Amino acid sequence: MVAGLIFNFKAIIIYIKIILSILTAPLEFALGAVPGNDEKIKGWFMRMAKYTLTLFGMGIILPLGTIIAMFVALDYAVETAGVGVLLSMAMPIFIILYCFGIGIGMEKRIEEFMGTGQKKR
């Protein structure tokens, strides 16, 4: 429940970033029309692509992790004794937490993939 709230809060923050980028787009495009500021327009499109890919990735990874965890739990459900019982209880939780961590860090991963992150000095 708490993980879902955190996940949704992160998605809402990204939606707000998209809305603010759209609202400031005319100003950024006007500044990009000045000779020598060609990177402003490209930066805006790269930022919008990053935000939409982040939302898409977050929307895919958590349900996919939940489905995988359910398959693991169902496969281990036939075990009646031994280590299989412990695995059937613990592994789905670890899988969901791992996918949650990947989903929360999706913006950073896409930023690194696209090369749109802050440049190190």
Automatic annotation (TrEMBL):
It comes from the Bacteria. The chain crosses the membrane at residues 12-34, 55-74, 80-104. Keywords: Membrane, Transmembrane, Transmembrane helix. This is Uncharacterized protein.
